[in-house]
Amino acid sequence: MSKADRWNIITPSLSRLVMWGASDQCRVNIPILRRLGCDVHAFIDDTVDKCSPLGEVPIYRGEHGLDIFLKGSESSELGFIIAIGNPHGAVRLRLHALMLARGLRPVSFADPTALVCQSAIFGEGLQVMPAAIIHNDVRIGQQCIVNTRALVEHDCVLEDGVEIGPGAVLCGRVHIGNRSWIGANTTILPRVRIGSNTVIGAGAVVVTDIPNDSVALGVPARVTRDNLKNE
Fold first, then answer.
1. Which position among 88, 96, 135, 154 bears the catalytic label?
2. What is the rounded average pLDDT of the residues 121-144?
3. For residue 87, what are the CA distances in angstroms to 61, 66, 76, 92, 162?
4. Is 14-107 assigned to CATH 3.40.50.20?
5. Where are the domains of the chain?
6. Active site residue 154
7. pLDDT tens across 55-80, in order?
8. Taking the model in full, what pTM does it have?
9. Are strands 199-200 and 215-217 parallel, antiparallel or unpaired?
10. Distances (CA, A) of 18 to 50, 64, 102, 106, 186
11. Do residues 151 and 168 make contact, with C-beta atoms less than 8 angstroms apart?
């Protein structure tokens, strides 16, 4: 079996893009997208007086700014990327719906050095960073981010709005709930379930299930907070 037979090449379905978010996640995405032959035609950001990360590309503020930009553009020919990292998975999902309502189309992409198995199934808005590996029969929801050198092993499930941190290892059949954030260099043992809206701290080793709305830290990981739903 050749590399082309086993690994999927994920390139944006549209080359003209609007990116919501003009900070760190945006700056990581730009060189990948350029290598994939894409151009960002506008940035949208909610921060007052935010400067464009690309001087020649305009930046607009928030939903009102998006509408101003779209007055002079054909939205059906524009793809969009939500360049906002966690703990803001819920924000990515909300903005995903907003952009869809404006007629823009979500795109997914993976750095050319990443490996995404042909049998993996992923939702709209997937972002895969350099040297990440997504293995056999993984299922990924909408607006997920898999960061540099992360390993998502066979049969894992990532629900909507999940982010996997750099160097994290998800062993086989791990299940990550909606909007959860797995910190850098975390290891999650096989068949462990992580709840929704949950944060696993960097370097943790998770050996048992972690409930919804929690923060878990350490080796082995233990719940240190269980009230994130109220924040």
1. 154
2. 98
3. 21, 23, 30, 10, 9
4. yes
5. 14-107, 110-220
6. yes
7. 999 999 999 999 999 997 777 789 99
8. 0.95
9. parallel
10. 16, 14, 12, 10, 32
11. yes
